[in-house]
Specification:
By secondary structure, this protein is an alpha+beta fold. Among the domains are: 146 residues, no CATH class; 109 residues. The chain contains 22 helices and 24 strands. Strands 15-16-17-18-20-19-21 form a seven-stranded mixed β-sheet, with helices on one face. Helix 6 runs parallel beside helix 8 and helix 8 crosses helix 11. The N terminus is likely disordered.
């Protein structure tokens, strides 16, 4: 059996307290330790340590390996025991007591083996006690320091985070301001300056602005109450000017709503009429008068589904199937017409006895879906300079169709054969500017480049235009709330239609191309449906209806009716030679359905160029696109007109040289070379100067033909130019489109070798057209009064004095004169 000593040793090893230490009386084992320790000789240092109060330094020194002796050892043991207990309690209270008690219990193992063991045990006990005290003291101080350090670290981290957040917020504000400014600038340019193809850019900018707004809104709302009044004011003005978020959430929501509306404005303009049509294609109807002559009139209508599905069925003998009878009614309506008898004294007696209720049967109209429900008909066998009216009637029951709602009137042109006779019978001074029965005095207008809803007006936005009209604002003719608004036509109607009582102020309008913009700002592709949609959008415009319902409109296409800078041999520089663009056929077909079919028929069948005559003046309308060669073709083969059309033009000049006083050549692109300056992108590539040989060949002939005036468009500017002192050109555009704020003319003075001189250059203005008042009543002084109108106001006037036309002479005299002129000995000039 183990004795008491072994039990106590076991207990010490388990971490218990010695029995003697627990009651304060020394045990036998302790006495034996003292006696053993007395045998060890004392050192001087030990004696001094026992006689003096031990300082922490001496304790450390003792713990460093100098053993105590005698009573000092006994006192040290007791002191160590007490200190150990206190340290243990203290460590236990601070750290849970587990680690300290375990250290003491496992370290202090008293044994009676030897004095050296006792000394070693005592030293270990002292060192452990001291370390426990130090650990306890260290931990007491570290806890407070740790809390302070953590608090400082958190504060520093929060400060750094706050500074970083403020820095990032400033960066986001700057970036948001840049994005908002770009968004507003891009939309402003697209809606008011130039219709850009910038849908992707606008959407990206708006999405970026929205994302930044959401981030800043969550961070700014917590600091909004801390901002001072001055800071709020500065923030508000920055928000208004640059679109950045402010310290007020209300202002931020207003800014977000503003930029959202700005983006919606752009989308409304960009996708109109493709996604936001202001009409229904199945009920869009119009009826107008196209080309007129002294003896005929061309009627042009669009009438979708003129008859509802009939109850009757049609028995097809081939397959025995019953079909809807209306499918076989390809000509459901016809034109009926009659002469207008305002006063019986104005017409001969034979015509006056005719019943005014009588209508004459006119031609049938073929209306079908394959022509987008458009059709033309020719009323012929009419009297010159006579007023007529017409309507549509159903064929199956001879009743009036609802289109047009009332009779449409027109006046045939005067007989040109009477021009010379009337010059000898009438005074050359009358107050009538546009007498309908005078072939020697009339007025017409010319313009080009039409884009509905440009410049864009915020009042026409679909979200609230109906609300504004409910208060009687902007709903009248030309009102700002109208969709498909064409301000140029409204201004023209106010001057030429509304301001006159009976007949319009002009006899016809020449539209010189770009009547639609198929590729600006959004291109739907080379599909006939997309082109037809744009023409329907044009004819659905109340602004255009005010003109075409009263004035015949004749026209020729330019490039934007198909794609930009196209030719019959290729799509600008984008395709190989002899490869017409894919959009050529659908674009020209749609143009023919809505514009071309109402023109004067070409003398060469399917060609688009044509000529006509009004009184003492002759017109040749040039097709400057279909027959031009590819831009890559150089040399003698390079041509704009093509061989056939150039021959037609020269033959026409020969026919009218001695029969018409003024000869007007109508071309969609400028003939002059003054455009193409350093800031002009394509003026020298798309107009007549790009085909120098063709241009020179025509100009060499024109300089010997008296009184030639060229009328052109396309450049979105006005210019009057004299070439070789004998040929004048007036180029006018746009009617309703952007104008170029920079100057694209090459120079302002003489251009060699054609001796071109600027007479007038007017580049500014969204709405331009030119009126030509032709007056040849005085055979010795024929004149053309030219008036340029910009934004509805007269901007420039000039009177062109022509040369008297010499009628055909004897064969010998005329040949001699022609040879001299062709040899260059006697060129004709505008100015003496």
């Amino acid at each position: 059996m183990p004795g008491p000593d072994s039990k106590q040793e076991s207990g010490n090893k388990l971490g218990g307290t010695p029995k003697g230490a627990s009651n304060g009386a020394p045990s036998k084992q302790a006495d034996s330790k003292q006696s053993d320790a007395a045998r060890v000789p004392a050192t001087p240092s030990a004696a001094s340590d026992s006689s003096e109060a031990r300082s922490p330094d001496s304790d450390a020194k003792s713990a460093g390996g100098v053993p105590p002796s005698g009573a000092d050892a006994d006192n040290a043991a007791q002191k160590g025991t007490k200190t150990s207990g206190k340290a243990t309690d203290k460590a236990t209270s601070k750290t849970g007591g587990t680690d300290a008690s375990h250290a003491l219990g496992t370290t202090v193992s008293l044994s009676d083996a030897s004095a050296s063991a006792a000394e070693t045990a005592q030293k270990v006990l002292d060192a452990a006690t001291e370390q426990v005290e130090k650990v306890a003291a260290y931990r007491d101080g570290t806890a407070a320091d740790f809390v302070s350090d953590v608090s400082d670290a958190i504060e520093n981290y929060a400060t750094n985070v706050s500074n970083a957040a403020a820095k990032e917020s400033r960066k986001l504000h700057v970036f948001q301001g840049i994005v908002a400014t770009l968004l507003r600038l891009l939309v402003l340019l697209s809606l008011r300056v130039f219709p850009l193809r910038a849908c992707a850019a606008v959407l990206v900018l708006y999405a970026t602005y929205l994302a930044i707004w959401l981030v800043l809104d969550s961070s700014l709302k917590s600091r909004s109450s801390q901002a001072g009044a001055a800071r709020r004011k500065r923030s508000f003005f920055r928000g208004v000017l640059f679109g950045v978020s402010t310290h007020s959430r209300k202002v931020n929501f207003v800014l977000l709503g503003f930029h959202t509306i700005v983006a919606l404005f752009f989308l409304d303009f960009y996708y109109s009429p493709h996604m936001f049509p202001s009409y229904y294609d199945y009920n869009l109807r119009f009826a107008r008068v196209g080309a007129l002559t002294p003896n005929s009139a061309t009627i042009h209508v669009r009438y979708p589904h003129p008859l509802p599905p009939l109850d009757g069925l049609w028995d097809n003998d081939n397959d025995g199937v019953l079909y809807d009878a209306s499918l076989y009614a390809e000509t459901p309506v016809r034109v009926v017409w009659r002469r207008v008898l305002r006063h019986s004294a104005q017409v001969p007696a034979g015509a006056a006895v005719r019943d005014p209720r009588r209508w004459e049967r006119g031609p049938l109209l073929r209306l079908a879906e394959d022509s987008d429900w458009t059709a033309t008909a020719l009323i012929d066998n009419l009297w010159p300079a006579t007023e007529y009216e017409w309507r549509l009637a159903f064929v199956h029951n001879n009743t009036f169709a609802p289109l047009p709602e009332r009779p449409v009137s027109f006046v045939t042109w005067p007989d040109p054969k009477l021009a010379a006779y009337l010059k000898t019978r009438r005074s050359t001074h009358t107050s009538l500017r546009n007498a309908v029965d005078d072939p020697n005095h009339f007025t017409f207008a010319a313009t080009s480049c039409i884009k509905p809803d440009f410049p864009y007006h915020p009042a026409q936005f679909w979200l609230w235009n109906w609300f504004i009209r409910a208060f009687g604002v902007g709903g009248g003719p030309g009102g700002v709330t109208k969709r498909n608004r064409i301000r140029g036509f409204d201004l023209m109607a106010e001057r030429l239609v509304d301001a006159v009582r009976e007949t319009p102020g002009i006899r016809f309008l020449l539209e010189l191309g770009d009547v639609i913009y198929a590729d600006v700002p959004h291109y739907e592709g080379a599909y006939i449906s997309s082109y037809r949609k744009l023409y329907r959008n044009l004819f659905a415009s109340d602004s255009f209806r005010r003109i075409y319902s009263k004035i015949p409109v004749l026209g020729i296409f330019d490039d934007h009716e198909v794609v930009n800078n196209w030719s019959g041999a290729g799509d600008g520089f984008k395709t190989l030679p002899d490869s017409p663009p894919a959009a050529f056929k659908p674009g020209i077909k749609a143009w023919s359905e809505y514009i071309g079919s109402a023109n004067t028929p070409s003398s060469k069948g399917e060609q688009h160029y044509f000529s006509f005559q009004y009184g003492d003046s002759a017109f040749f309308v040039v097709d400057a696109r279909t027959h031009r060669t590819h831009p890559h073709i150089q040399g003698p083969e390079r041509t704009m007109l093509g061989e056939k059309q150039r021959g037609e033009l020269l033959d026409w000049l020969a026919r009218v040289n001695h029969t018409a006083t003024f000869k007007f050549i109508v071309t969609p692109v400028p003939f002059t070379s003054v455009w193409g300056g350093p800031l002009d992108l394509d003026g020298h590539l798309d107009g007549w100067p790009a085909y120098a040989d063709d241009r020179k060949a025509v100009l060499d002939v024109l300089q010997y033909v008296p009184n030639v005036i060229i009328i052109s468009g396309d450049r979105h500017e006005f210019a009057a130019v004299s070439m070789r002192d004998s040929v004048l050109e007036f180029s006018t555009s746009p009617l309703s489109m952007f104008y170029i704020p920079i100057r694209t003319a090459a120079q302002e003075h003489v251009v060699e070798p054609d001796n071109e001189v600027f007479l007038k250059y007017l580049p500014d203005g969204h709405h331009k057209w030119t009126e030509f008042e032709v007056d040849t009543r005085d055979p010795h002084d024929p004149v053309v009064h030219v008036t340029v109108l910009i934004n509805g106001n007269e901007a420039w006037n000039v009177t062109v004095h022509g040369h008297p036309v010499r009628r055909a002479q004897g064969a010998i005299g005329s040949i001699a004169q022609s040879l001299l002129e062709l040899l260059g000995f006697k060129p004709r000039k505008w100015f003496d």
